[in-house]
Amino acid sequence: MQHVIDPIVTFCTTLIGNWGLPAVFVLMLLESACIPIPSEAIMPFAGFAVSQGTLTLFGIVAAGVAGNLCGSAISYAVGYYGGRPFVERYGRYVFLRMHHLVLAERFFARYGPITVFFARMIPIVCTFISLPAGFGRMAFWKFALYTVLGSTIWVLLLGFVGEKLGSNWKKIDPLLHYLDYAVVVAIAALVVWVIVRHRGRGPAGDAAGGA
Question: What angle do CA 15, 20, 22 make, to 5 degrees?
């Protein structure tokens, strides 16, 4: 697997080194448009560039979030207008792996629209979550809002850690596993909260309210 990742990392770092913020925007757009360029290979190096004084933290976050939103909108439109059959037929041309799409669909089916927010902070799922949102015809304004909020946290975190690690920015990978666990726990907590609140509004609660 590493022999596949290394060329991608080299490609991203070279592009950002040569073109700066426009490269961050384009790379994040491609990642969010289901092109398998992981944000973990983009934003930490952009953060390293911040530590070197060639870019700013605000700049890389703004470029990263803008790219994420634009790429996500493309994927959402593909899912909305093309549907799953279109993605199944043409997805292979952009190296889309169907088991990754199935994973994103399961998240969306289980947790609903709020998944778009949390999924922006889960590697792999964040790349493909826009498609099931489009399949389900989620309201675009809500989709865009959750995308911006979730991607801002993710992009800022990766960029900030990359800045602090400096030349050791590649060491961020092991930290992402702990973040995965934290996001899953947060989703589970949200589901429990929704269930408890719903039960509290059951027949007994309604009767009490009517009295």
Answer: 90
> In angstroms, rounded to a whole number, what is the distance separating the alpha carbons of residues 70 and 63?
11
* Residue 170: per-residue pLDDT: 64
Query: What is the residue-wise DSSP string for 14-67?
Result: HHHHHH-HHHHHHHHHHHHTT-S--GGGTHHHHHHHHHTTSS-HHHHHHHHHHH
Cα separation, 120 vs 179, in Å, equals 12
Query: Which residues, including other chains, have CB under 8 Å from residue 178's CB and lie 6 or more apart?
Result: none
pTM for the model: 0.73
Do the Cβ atoms of 77 and 86 come closer than 8 Å? no
Q: Is 202 left (phi over 0), alpha (psi -120 to 50) or beta?
A: beta
Point out the residues of the chain with pLDDT beneath 70.
1-6, 90-97, 99-100, 167-211
In Å, how far are 21, 109, 112 from 137, measured between CA atoms?
A: 32, 13, 12
